[in-house]
């Protein structure tokens, strides 16, 4: 069989190895090339194509580093949001899920040197709630869009309630005014003022002798 025969055992073995996740230390992010072993990685590093990529990196290292970091963070958060939502989950579990894709952006090409550094960054930027336990780091994604939506709904409900209360007070005031207009006014009688008389009244008494009648 020829060297490039597709169904040879050797070719099948190579395909199986290529599908699996290879060691991170044998991956070149600049060239986006995965090497299988140390010997292959050394050969790649000495290649002309790799040297050209290094020259490009040397011209503007910060720009390339920021680009890789941005791509890594976007893909990591996209997985966290879609796969786990706002549930509290172990950071390492999310990372292991993330690196299952053999074409993922590698962390060693970003500004973060470890998963712990990434989690601290997520906590400082209020992207995730981070808590450290005996079992490791746990993260909870903060869905700012959902929070903003709930705040907007609460604000709208408050405005509607205030409007209803204001309208209810206006209606009640109108009812009270209508009742006051229909009620007849009661006539109040003028009180009689008592004036004491200035004349003096004199009384006189005369003593009279009692008369005795003879009984027959």
Automatic annotation (TrEMBL):
<dbReference type="InterPro" id="IPR037321">
    <property type="entry name" value="KIN17-like"/>
</dbReference>
<dbReference type="InterPro" id="IPR056767">
    <property type="entry name" value="C2H2-Znf_KIN17"/>
</dbReference>
<keyword id="KW-0479">Metal-binding</keyword>
<dbReference type="GO" id="GO:0005634">
    <property type="term" value="C:nucleus"/>
</dbReference>
<comment type="similarity">
    <text>Belongs to the KIN17 family.</text>
</comment>
<protein>
    <recommendedName>
        <fullName>DNA/RNA-binding protein Kin17 WH-like domain-containing protein</fullName>
    </recommendedName>
</protein>
<dbReference type="InterPro" id="IPR019447">
    <property type="entry name" value="DNA/RNA-bd_Kin17_WH-like_dom"/>
</dbReference>
<dbReference type="Pfam" id="PF25095">
    <property type="entry name" value="C2H2-zf_KIN17"/>
</dbReference>
<dbReference type="InterPro" id="IPR038254">
    <property type="entry name" value="KIN17_WH-like_sf"/>
</dbReference>
<keyword id="KW-0862">Zinc</keyword>
<dbReference type="Pfam" id="PF10357">
    <property type="entry name" value="WH_KIN17"/>
</dbReference>
<dbReference type="GO" id="GO:0008270">
    <property type="term" value="F:zinc ion binding"/>
</dbReference>
<feature type="domain" description="DNA/RNA-binding protein Kin17 WH-like">
    <location>
        <begin position="52"/>
        <end position="176"/>
    </location>
</feature>
<keyword id="KW-0863">Zinc-finger</keyword>
<dbReference type="GO" id="GO:0006260">
    <property type="term" value="P:DNA replication"/>
</dbReference>
<dbReference type="GO" id="GO:0003690">
    <property type="term" value="F:double-stranded DNA binding"/>
</dbReference>
<dbReference type="InterPro" id="IPR036236">
    <property type="entry name" value="Znf_C2H2_sf"/>
</dbReference>
<dbReference type="GO" id="GO:0006974">
    <property type="term" value="P:DNA damage response"/>
</dbReference>
